[in-house]
Amino acid sequence: MPPSDLERIAAIDDPYLLLRAATERLNAAQQEVTELARLRRRVIQELHAQGMSYAQIAEKAGLSRGRIHQIRHTGPAPEGVFLGTGTITLATPLKQEAGNARPVVAMEDVTAAKRIEDLARGFGLSLDLEHVPLGGEIDLNRPNLIVICGPKLSPVMGALYESDPVLEWVKADDGPWTLRDRCTGTVYRSGSDSTPPRPVDYAYLGRLARPDGNGNVLVFTGIHPQGSLGVVRLLTTDITTLWGQVADRRFSCVVGVEYDPNTGEPVNAELASPLYRHEED
C-alpha cells in the first residue's frame, strides 16, 4: 500500500520542509472538512425538502435525530457553493487613468472585492485577490474563479461573454455599452447614458463555461461601476434564492440597480431579466 500523507510527511528529514509540508496539508485538510460539512448539511436540507422527516433521515443514515438537527443548523451554509469551494480567486481589472502613468484599481472595484471577501468568509471560504492586467489577459481555466470585468477592458472576457446563449453586450449607435436580451429583444441601457440621466444602472451576472470546457467561471460587471456594486448587494441579500434557482450550474441574468446619485451606493438591486439557465452537456 502507498504511504498515507501523514506517513509521507512524517518521513521527511529536513525539518523546514516537514514544517512546510505539514502546514500545507493541514490547510488542505481544513478546507476538506469545511466542504464535507457543507455537503452534509446540503444533503439533509434536500432530503427534508423532498418530504422526509429528520427522524426518517436519521434512521436511514444511521445517526440520531438530534445529530441530524445539529448538522442541519450548524456549519457552513450550502449556498456558499454559489461562490465556489475552498479558496476563491477574485479578479478585478486594472485601469489606466488619464494623466496617471501607473495602472489603478477603481475604488468601486476595491469596495466590491472587500464585500465579496466578507461574504465568502461568512460561508467558511477564503479568498485570494488578483488583478486583470492592462490589456485584459487572464487565465480563465481555473477552478473557483470569480471575475469582475467587462468586455471593454478585456478581449478575453469579451470572448467569454460571447459564449452566453441569451444575453449579449452591444454598443449603442451613440457609443455607450448596453446589454441585450436575445430572447425578448429588450435592451438595457444605463440611466447615466440616458437623457435625462437617472441614478439607475444595469449589470451582467452569470456563470459561464471555461474556455477549456472543464468547469465554470462566475462573472459579473455593471455597465458602470454602480452596477457592479449592485450585484454584490444582490449576492449579499439574495444568494440563498439564487442558489435555490441555479445551484452551481450555468446561468445568466441582468441585474437592475438603483443607486444614490451622491454616493453611488446601491439602494436597491433586483433581477431585471429572467434568470436564464443554460443547457449543459
Give a nutshell description of this structure:
With 281 residues, the protein is of the alpha/beta class.
List keywords for this structure.
23% strand; 281 residues; 7 helices; single chain; 2 domains; alpha/beta; 8-stranded mixed beta sheet; 3-stranded antiparallel beta sheet; globular; Chitobiase, domain 2
CATH topology annotation of the largest domain: Chitobiase, domain 2
Q: Rounded to an integer, what's the Rg over CA atoms?
A: 22 Å
Q: Sheet bearing the most strands, described?
A: 8 strands, mixed
Structural class by secondary-structure content:
alpha/beta
Q: Provide the helix percentage.
A: 25-40%
Taking pLDDT < 50 over at least 5 consecutive residues as the criterion, the unreliable ranges are none
- Spatial gap, N to C terminus: 37 Å
Q: How many discrete structural domains? A: 2
What is the string of helix and strand elements? Answer: HHHHEHEEHEEEEEHEEE
- Mean pLDDT, to the nearest integer, reads 89
Number of helices: 7
Overall spatial form: globular
Instruction: Provide the CATH top-level class of the largest domain.
Output: Alpha Beta
The CATH H-level superfamily of the largest domain is Chitobiase/beta-hexosaminidase domain 2-like
The number of E-state strands comes to: 11
Second-tier CATH architecture of the largest domain? 2-Layer Sandwich
Beta percentage is: 15-25%
